[in-house]
Specification:
The protein has about 325 residues and is mainly α. It contains 14 helices and 6 strands. The protein has 3 domains: about 80 residues, 2-Layer Sandwich (Dna Ligase, domain 1), CATH 3.30.1490; about 70 residues, Dna Ligase, domain 1, CATH 3.30.1490.480; about 140 residues, no CATH class. The strands form 3 sheets. The chain has a two-stranded antiparallel ribbon. Strands 3-4 form a two-stranded antiparallel sheet. Strand 5 and strand 6 form a beta hairpin.
Length: about 325
């Protein structure tokens, strides 16, 4: 009788342990966070990553509740050895089965990507990585060894997800050579100067006519040795100074403070005379055309009305200061 009792106790304990383990397992498969509580995460599976490494990385990114539960589920499900390298948009509100299904699917496919005129390399890196075309930061890293800014033509492209960044850059630069190259080639002696001016015009002014007038103002100030004093170049100086990371958007970088105008960078046209050392973005055809056709005018200054986007021109500093008070509400 005592033996039967002990066996019953052991059996009962085993059942309880199994139930507890099953409860833990199914609980651990649930989403790590409630729906809507987390932004999507671009998650990379590198070549050679086994399912255990993938599970550890997912857990490290707080995308799953348990690496062990992920391992067990992927083994039982039969997809532990089918997890494919690539970039994936995941969210902590996805459960483990959903994440396994996405990663085993490979994420391959063609996507349409539009790069707006004036986008800089930081913008383009973010656009491409958000579309899962390249790994976040890959374009920035490549740019550190190559002069790419200004040569990545803004346009609509078809790319495959998980592309090689060198292949993507080749597509962008080939399009630049095809569409912008002939225009800049019309004045080969000043091709780089005109590209830099066009990149500034793209950020500063709307409309071809006003862009041509501002191009004329810039060249006039350059010839007289007057600093350009262009806010857009300070925004770019802020991006490349090391005070901003690739995650900071250009809009955030262009929320300027008084200290930003003191950034010691050759891109800061308030501190340094002449043009910045390179383009501050990737201009489109209109801005390049304007840079090639600067218009003479009596103006030395301009600003943009934030309410309408209209360019307001001024002949003297006093007139410019009056316009600043009228349109910008500042002295």
């Amino acid at each position: 009788m005592k033996l039967v009792t002990k066996k019953n106790i052991i059996s009962t304990l085993l059942v309880l342990v199994l139930l507890a383990a099953a409860g833990w397992f199914f609980f651990s498969l649930d989403p790590a966070r409630a729906a809507g509580s987390d932004a999507p995460v671009i998650f990379q599976v590198s070549a050679g990553d086994g399912f255990r490494k993938v599970a550890q990385n997912l857990y490290g990114e707080h995308l799953i509740r348990s690496a062990l539960a992920f391992d067990l589920f992927s083994l039982v499900d039969g997809r532990a050895f089918t997890l494919r390298p690539g970039l994936y948009r995941l969210n902590a509100s996805m459960n483990t089965p959903q994440i396994v299904a996405v990663i085993s699917g490979g994420g391959a496919g063609e996507v349409t990507v539009t790069i707006p005129e004036g986008s800089n390399i930081y913008d383009i890196d973010r656009i491409l990585s958000n579309a899962l075309v390249i790994q976040p930061g890959a374009l920035i890293t490549m740019t550190s060894t190559q002069n790419l800014e200004g040569h990545l033509f803004p346009d609509t492209y078809q790319f495959y997800t998980n592309s090689n960044v060198a292949d993507v850059v080749k597509e962008l630069t080939n399009n630049f050579n095809l569409k912008a190259g002939p225009l800049l080639g019309a004045d080969p002696a000043h091709a780089e100067r005109n590209l830099i001016i066009a990149s500034i015009l793209e950020k500063e002014v709307r409309g071809l006519e006003d862009q041509e007038l501002v191009a004329g103002i810039m060249l006039k100030r350059l010839s007289l040795g007057i600093p350009l004093d262009i806010d857009a170049t300070v925004c770019y100086a802020k991006l490349v100074s090391g005070s901003s990371s690739v995650q900071v958007s250009s809009a955030q970088a262009c929320s300027l403070t008084a200290l930003d105008f003191k950034i010691n960078s050759p891109y800061n046209t308030y501190l340094y005379k002449g043009l910045p050392p390179g383009p501050i973005g990737n201009p489109g055809i209109s801005a390049i055309t304007a840079a090639l056709h600067p218009q003479s005018s009596p103006y030395f200054y301009y600003l943009s009305d934030p309410a309408t986007g209209k360019t307001i021109f001024a002949k003297t500093l006093d007139e410019q200061n009056q316009n600043r008070v009228k349109y910008l509400g500042s002295n």
